[in-house]
Design goal:
- By secondary structure, the protein is of the alpha/beta class.
- It has two domains: about 5-340, Up-down Bundle (ABC transporter transmembrane region fold), CATH 1.20.1560; about 405-625, P-loop containing nucleotide triphosphate hydrolases (Rossmann fold, 3-Layer(aba) Sandwich).
- It has helices at about 5-15, 25-35, 40-70, 75-125, 130-135, 135-180, 180-190, 190-225, 230-240, 240-295, 300-320, 320-340, 375, 380-385, 420-425, 450-455, 470-475, 485-495, 495-500, 520-535, 550-565, 600-605, 610-615, and strands spanning about 360-370, 395-405, 410-415, 435-440, 445, 455-460, 540, 570, 585-590, 590-595.
- Helix 20 (about 520-535) runs parallel beside helix 21 (about 550-565).
- The protein is elongated, with a radius of gyration of 35 Å.
């Protein structure tokens, strides 16, 4: 490494020091070692190669000095040629081993990134829904990207850098002291002039870098929110585009000014340190030359010292920042381990129990549930708060019991916030109950594997979420081996085949972020088609027709009636068409069942259901409503 390169390296390392001091802990180092244990063989080879490369780097200047001495002493040509060949052989070996070391470094680092990212991704997928409702998505993604890459550098660069620099420094000092202790001591006197400015200027650059990063983060947040489909709509309807532009431009100009100041500070710094390196070389030639003329040092030793000086300053500067590098890596590992340390509240059973064949019953027995507190499912750093709220959530499901018979239909109705959607999430075990139990086919859902449970019980949520990919990919999420014929059949039953066929790319049409290229009703019908394609034995519809107009609702309800044949169904809805033919209707209020029975019975009771019917259901014209079965009770009373 040249003196100028060492200057740039010193500045960069100091500039990228961690914002806060982070003490070493045995626990952190132990966890890092446990994670790195599978790579210990490759790490050993990597370190050994780094040592050999460092040793070869010191050997070349010594041989160059011997060559100069041979030339000035008029030794035989063969001696000079042999030294030249040896120098060339070392150069080839150093280049080859350097490539091999870089391959080990890259492979080790990339394997670590792959394992860490996979571990974090898999662990996050096991977290409860409450985790995702509390955390900032950008902060979570940053752990998988930036922090994992920073942790990877501990093995791909920091480890080899520390080992190689220690070996290089040790051998260089030994060689220089052997050649001339006077020149070596004089060279070390200039070291503070080289290292200290790097740390001071680095801190200033780090402060500027953090300020620029804050502005860039603000710009990213503004662009992400404003460029999403709902955000762009909101800005157009209620926002002030001119002020949005001014705010964005102000941050852009601040980042520009910081960039100019940083560039000039870096240039001045490197220029100054390059000057120091030139002074160091001048000192070697001046003092070394004087000693050579006096006869106490030979000419080759002066040349060797001049070449070795660069191999002295570069590792010394790097090792001065080694603590920063190691601390950065430990901090990155700790941030990754923070995620891996979160305990998923919903855990896979050690010995899963298979579900019985055929239609399934769903039994809810004395279920009570409150959403978990923040400190159970989240991290302060992911929520951008100083301290997590330790308080637990209020009870949202309170001692609820009911049974959906195989092939039967149970409807849940009630006011907004009564706990209906929460009940749906409990039925498919997105959360575990606090008390009581939920059994599918007589088996507690906590004893069933997630795959078996979600294959047997399908849920259509009210938001109709779609991924930013093709219609085909969205449909086959639950049925990856479905044929085109099966896909078109599901679309036909969801009354969506004609629309998809009319699109230029058909099934390969990209629906856009969250499916915004489709209307609300089209998105919901696509999620219903996804359910029909999977064909679960029990289904839960959480306001599955909430975004459909009357015509679309009638078409989809007719398709659902066919799909629900001989399947257990639990329907959460506020429309008459989805509850009138239910075998059992449960009225939920504040998480408790306040009424239960069939449609006619509850109307005759004159309680909460009758009130809901008068305010929500009665406006529907029975002649235009598609019922869940063709022999619907046309004589059902009306308000």
């Amino acid at each position: 490494m040249s003196m100028e390169s060492a200057a740039w390296s010193a500045m960069w390392r100091a500039q990228h020091r961690p914002i806060d001091d982070h003490p070493f802990s045995k626990e952190s180092l132990s966890r890092i070692w446990r994670f790195a244990r599978p790579y210990r063989g490759r790490i050993g080879v990597f370190v050994a190669l780094s040592v050999v490369v460092a040793a070869l780097a010191v050997a070349t200047p010594l041989l160059a000095g011997d060559a100069i001495n041979a030339i000035t002493a008029n030794e035989a040509t063969g001696v000079i040629v042999r030294l030249a060949v040896l120098i060339a052989a070392i150069a080839v070996a150093e280049a080859g081993l350097g490539l091999l070391t870089r391959w080990f470094s890259a492979r080790l680092g990339e394997d670590l990134i792959a394992d860490l990212r996979t571990a974090v991704f898999d662990h996050v997928q096991r977290m409860p829904i409450a985790f995702f409702t509390r955390t900032r998505t950008g902060a979570l993604v940053s752990r998988i990207n930036s922090d994992v890459i920073a942790a990877q550098s501990a093995f791909s660069s920091t480890l080899s850098g520390v080992v190689g620099n220690v070996v290089t420094l040790t051998l260089t000092l030994a060689a220089m002291l052997t050649l001339s202790w006077q020149v070596t001591v004089a060279a070390l006197v200039l070291l503070p002039v080289f290292v200290l400015p790097a740390r001071r200027v680095g801190r200033r650059l780090a402060s500027m870098r953090r300020e620029a990063a804050d502005h860039n983060a603000a710009m990213n947040d503004q662009a992400t929110e404003r460029f999403s489909a709902p955000g762009a709509t909101l800005v157009k309807l209620y926002g002030r585009p001119e002020e949005e532009s001014r705010a964005f431009a102000d941050r852009v100009l601040r980042v520009r000014d910081i960039g100019v100041r940083s560039a000039m500070l870096q240039t001045v710094f490197v220029t100054a340190l390059t000057l120091v390196s030139a002074l160091a070389l001048a000192l070697v030639y001046g003092l070394g030359g004087t000693l050579a003329v006096a006869g106490s040092l030979d000419t080759g030793a002066v040349v060797s010292l001049a070449l070795l000086i660069t191999r002295l300053y570069a590792p010394l500067t790097a090792l001065a920042s080694a603590r920063v590098d190691v601390m950065s890596a430990v901090v990155a590992f700790d941030r990754v381990f923070e995620i891996l340390g979160l305990d998923p509240l919903v855990k896979e059973p050690e010995h899963p129990v298979p579900l019985p064949e055929g239609p399934l019953s769903i039994e809810v027995d004395g279920v009570t549930f409150a959403y978990p507190s923040a400190d159970q499912v989240s991290l302060a750093s992911l929520e951008d708060v100083a301290v997590l709220d330790p308080r637990g959530g209020e009870t949202v499901i309170d001692d609820v019991s009911f049974r959906a018979e195989p092939g039967g239909l149970v409807a849940l109705v009630g006011s907004s916030g009564a706990g209906k959607s929460t009940m749906a999430q409990l039925l498919v075990r997105l959360y575990d109950v606090d008390a009581g139990s939920i059994r599918v086919g007589g088996v507690d859902v906590r004893d069933v594997s997630a795959h078996d449970l979600h294959t047997a019980v399908g849920l259509v949520t009210q938001d109709g979420h779609l991924f930013h990919t093709t219609i085909r990919d969205n449909l086959v999420l639950g049925a990856p081996h479905a044929t085109d014929a099966e896909i078109w059949q599901a679309l036909e039953r969801a009354r969506l085949a004609e629309l998809v066929a009319s699109l230029p790319d058909g099934l390969d049409t990209v629906v856009g972020e969250r499916g915004y290229r489709l209307s609300g009703g089209e998105r919901q019908r696509l999620t219903i088609a996804r359910l029909l394609l999977r064909a679960p034995r029990a289904v839960i519809l959480d306001e599955a027709t909430a975004h459909l107009d009357s015509a679309n609702e009638a078409a989809v309800t007719a398709a659902l009636a066919e799909a629900l044949t001989d399947r257990t169904a639990i329907v959460i809805a506020h429309r008459l068409s989805t509850v009138r033919r239910a075998d059992l209707i449960l009225v939920l209020e504040e998480g408790r069942v306040v009424e239960r029975g069939r449609h006619a019975e509850l109307l005759a009771l004159g309680g909460r259901y009758a009130q809901l019917y008068r305010t929500q259901f009665a406006e529907e014209d029975d002649e235009d409503v598609a019922l869940l079965a063709p022999d619907a009770d046309a004589a059902a009373p009306s308000s």
